[in-house]
Amino acid sequence: MPQNKSKGYGDMADRDDMLARVYAADGDPEKLIESYDRWASSYDRDLFAMGYRHPVVVAGTLARFAPNLDITVLDAGCGSGLLGEALSLLGYAEVVGIDLSEGMLEQAAAKTCYADLQQVMLGEDLEYEDGTFDAVVSAGVMTVGHAPPEALVELARVTRPGGHLVVAIVREAWESGFRNVAERLAADHKITPLYRTNHYVGLPGAPEAERVEARVHVMRRV
């Protein structure tokens, strides 16, 4: 009898269905929460099976520009904690995570790599003082139908002057709004763009429609 090669890594049809659901939510908060809560228990293995790249690229880029491991980092849209886990492995010990999905936050808490976790919707006002964090990172949430471009404004506000924002932004989301917000923040002397990676596909093993390109952008808070 042929072996089921997908065993232990989630069924491919289920993975594709879950991914399609989050994109079909089209930014509706209730639908996004429902979709991510439903996906939470199998999220990590499903994304690993699709070759998820954002966490390692973002974590590596932060380490290049902010090598001091004693800094306080905000993981915006932390999901199940894959980026927080990568940062912990690099030695960052003070990482705070925020996400809209309670189910995802439970998965993140189980990784024990966060100093604090809060249920927060990106795009809304954050309950942190100006300049609370030495760095802000984000992986996989600045994409179509997820965090709105204006979320960058609040993330910049809570970053201390001289601190860094290191965020993965999908090409389509960048062109349809994030670029304008980033350029406005730069013109208002709130941030200075420092660097961006080459384009890469965040989920190379996803269905073709979701196999989209992104870049990690580095901005310094002024």
UniProtKB/TrEMBL annotation:
Keywords: Methyltransferase, S-adenosyl-L-methionine, Transferase. One of its GO terms (biological process) is methylation. The keyword Methyltransferase applies. It holds the Pfam family Methyltransf_11. The keyword Lipid metabolism does not apply. It comes from the Bacteria. One of its GO terms (molecular function) is polyprenyldihydroxybenzoate methyltransferase activity. InterPro entries: Methyltransf_11, SAM-dependent_MTases_sf. Residues 74-167 form the Methyltransferase type domain. CDD domains: AdoMet_MTases. PANTHER family: METHYLTRANSFERASE (PTHR43464), UBIQUINONE BIOSYNTHESIS O-METHYLTRANSFERASE, MITOCHONDRIAL (PTHR43464:SF19). This is SAM-dependent methyltransferase. It comes from Minwuia thermotolerans.
